[in-house]
Amino acid sequence: MLTDLPSARLESGFAELGLPENLLSAVTDLGFTTPTDIQTEAIPLLLAGRDVVGVAQTGTGKTAAFGLPLLAAVDPSLRAVQALVLAPTRELALQVSEAISTFAAHQRDLTVLPIYGGSSFVPQLRGLRAGAQVVVGTPGRVMDLMEKGSLDLSGVRFLVLDEADEMLRMGFAEDVEQIAARVPAVRRTALFSATMPAAIKKVAATHLTDPVRVSVTPASSTVSNIEQTYAVVPFRHKVGALARVLAVSDAEAAIVFVRTKSAADDVAIELAGRGIQAAAISGDVAQRDREKLIDRLRSGTLDVLVATDVAARGLDVERIGLVVNFDVPRETETYVHRIGRTGRAGRSGRALTFLTPRERGRLSQIERATGSRLKEATIPSPADVSAHRASALLAKVGERLAAGRLDLYREVLETSGHDPLDAAAALMAIAVGDEGPAPRHERGEEDGPRRRREEQYDDSGEFVGASFEEGRENVRHLAPRRAGSRHRDGGGTRYRVEVGHRDGVQPGAIVGAITGEGGLRGQDLGKIDIFPSFSLVEISQELSPETSRRIGAARVAGRPLRIRPDTGPRKAPRPRR
Known about the structure:
Elements: E1 3-5, H1 21-29, H2 37-47, E2 52-55, H3 62-73, E3 83-86, H4 90-103, E4 112-115, H5 122-129, E5 134-137, H6 139-147, E6 158-161, H7 164-169, H8 173-182, E7 188-193, H9 198-207, E8 212-215, H10 219-222, E9 226-232, H11 238-248, E10 253-257, H12 261-273, E11 278-281, H13 287-299, E12 304-307, E13 320-325, H14 332-339, E14 349-355, H15 362-370, E15 375-376, H16 382-394, H17 397-403, H18 407-414, H19 420-431, E16 493-497, H20 507-518, E17 525-530, E18 535-539, H21 545-553, E19 555-556, E20 559-560, E21 564-565
Helix pairs in contact: 2-3, 3-4, 6-8, 11-16, 12-20, 14-15, 20-21
């Protein structure tokens, strides 16, 4: 049975929580002065030997809430695993491991070892053999090492289940059960979860002894530094609206949340086709590819990550200044988690949620959950986007004027026969990608009951994207043309990569690998045709041998791409839809 403890913040500092002197020194060195709510309530309980269920959002200081009592329970002189922290993702395992190591700065001979899948067993086995006392790991890799006989949990006296709701949502319930069964019954256990569904209550009842439940940090306080907005957007206009929002945003980077893996791939491809550095990430993305995407997001070579909820857990990238809920989350708790990817560590951020006309009723649910009133945002028009790009271009004029050597261009303008102001306006339109009004005519053949292509353009001629309704694919897999054929504009070549439907590959994964390893932009890629054992990709520029080597070595769905120009057959089989 859970014993509830009301939230009551203490202002007396960490010294009153009962921590050992060495941990107090580490906390002081880190500049911590006043504990957060979850730390104030959980630390004394765990130090006193009680089991704790903490209901707290990401970013509330829960790692210190269990990490400091955990370290107080570990004997550095004993070279055996004494504490185990389970986390749902590699990123979170690494973050928690690094944080606990920092707290242990004044504890000699104490080793914190992160273990996770998608990387070599060797350094993890080496760390276990060396006598690591604290292990922070993902359930899958912990199970692997247990089954190999390399991870002995018989000496564990402190068990932590971090983000337990997400571990269960990701399918780790059975692993968690087996791991908990291998840990001695006499131990302290802390379970932290953002939500408390029935499945989590069952876990707490099974694996915790008379736990105290502490509920802290209401959703409103976790999002107080985030500007929350919404826009009512018809479903088939969402992609176009998203592209225009991103085009005028001053955020360094953004995360776009969707409900499904296929939607993540589709939206990422649409954005990449519009010249936006975007890639998709979902729970099915291989760990190595996931690490590369996050590194690119941090370094600035990727600006937009289209993600599912599971894939974004534990992701903390300082550049993220905008979160877009492309699909409204089904649970209000998920909404708080999503927008919490921005505005972290005191930084400000912005969140925009797309609501279809039928979903307007969800707005009041979100407002009640967050304690915030969302403002209605105006989606930029194509003219707004062009004006924004033109202003950015004009901002560079002064610097270029100061640099000089413009006589040649003045002479060309004077002899062109055009009015200089008209010529300047036309050149600016060209520079910002405005080719004038788009003709509203048929852009492709009708495909069964699906919408005609002309319906994917709004009243201004702006492409607004394909409908995702009724299973429509956002990328049309058309039958390939003759081998080695060029784009219709004569600017590209068709290449073959050795991954296909049998590998479970999606177009977004291919786009991400080619752009990431080859230094290309999304707009450099054309049609992608996926067959059972291979795929064909149109690329607007011919690849150099070095670029082909880098792309060819990239792995998608566990297989190297091995890219090469397509040489046939003359008539290829129809691609699978």
